[in-house]
Amino acid sequence: KIVGGVEAKRNSIPWQVALFKHNRFFCGGSLINSRWVLTAAHCLPSSSSQASSLHVRLGEHNLISNDGSEQVISVSAIYRHPQYSGLNRDVGLMKLSRPATINSKVSTVCLPQTTDNFPSGTSCVVSGWGSLSAGGILPNKLRKAVKPIVSTSACNRPQSYGGAITQYMICAGFQQGGIDACQGDSGGPLMCPTPNGKPNQWTVVGIVSWGEGCAFPNKYGVYTRVTSVLSWVNKIIATK
Questions:
Q1: What is the pLDDT of residues 57-102, one digit of tens each?
Q2: Which residues are registered as beta bridge partners of 63?
Q3: What is the separation of C-alpha 98 from the centre of its chain, rounded to a whole number of angstroms?
Q4: Nearest to 132 by CA among 116, 122, 143
Q5: Where are the domains of the chain?
Q6: Per the CATH hierarchy, to which homologous superfamily does domain 16-108+230-239 belong?
Q7: Where is the Peptidase S1 domain (predicted)?
Q8: Looking at residue 120, what is its pLDDT?
Q9: Percent of the chain at pLDDT above 90?
Q10: pLDDT tens digits, 120-169
């Protein structure tokens, strides 16, 4: 998936979700509670009536073999941010038709607090089953890569994105390129250690959203900034 990454240890990212449409893998997501998956709006059909064509796999590692830990659950409802436009507020939620069974191989990731700050240089992890190179083949096994958070000002430099990065986005990666998320990783998590959290506790800070090419120099990965859409996420989960 991840350009310049490594295969993830089996079930080491237990909130990683694989999204399927008509039985074809198409995007990633994160389990944020037993009934809800966080993903990118651009992964979801525009019409909520199309939820029935979607299902998720939890506890997944190898997409083409049975790991013995998978839970396959259909999707009962989908929600895209009402102000999703272009690349802004690229966030969506999927309600599962039944609660996931939480165990050592399937569990949830923390949502950030509104006040959480993830400063430039914070070492975070992105994961998914996307291409290993721009336009390349999809791997079968979950991959991950470690990437530092990049400041919005650096990401907006002329040689990077020249002002296209808004308050709804967060960047991560290396100026020299070489490590990035890629096609098929969309909707998956950019996770950072939970501020003041327990050891091995992770917070989903970004949602794989867009970028120019994959792992090109100065073209950092761009993620939906979860803190910027948190009030909407919490409202949907509380009311739907």
A1: 999 999 999 989 999 999 999 999 999 998 999 999 999 999 999 9
A2: none
A3: 22
A4: 143
A5: 6-10+109-227, 16-108+230-239
A6: Trypsin-like serine proteases (2.40.10.10)
A7: 2-238
A8: 97
A9: 81
A10: 999 999 999 987 777 777 789 999 999 999 999 999 999 999 999 999 99
Q: For residues 1 and 134, what is the distance between their CA atoms, to the nearest angstrom? A: 10
Contact in structure between 145 and 7 (CB atoms under 8 Å): no
Residues annotated as catalytic are: 42, 90, 186
Residues 95, 55: Cα–Cα separation, whole Å:
10
Q: Point out which residues pair with 206 in neighbouring strands.
A: 190, 225
Instruction: Answer whether 31's CB lies under 8 Å from 106's CB.
Output: yes
Tell which CATH classification among 3.10.20.30, 2.60.40.10, 3.20.20.60, 2.40.10.10 matches the domain 6-10+109-227. 2.40.10.10
C-alpha triplet 228, 30, 150: angle, nearest 5°: 50
Pairing of strands 71-80, 143-150: unpaired
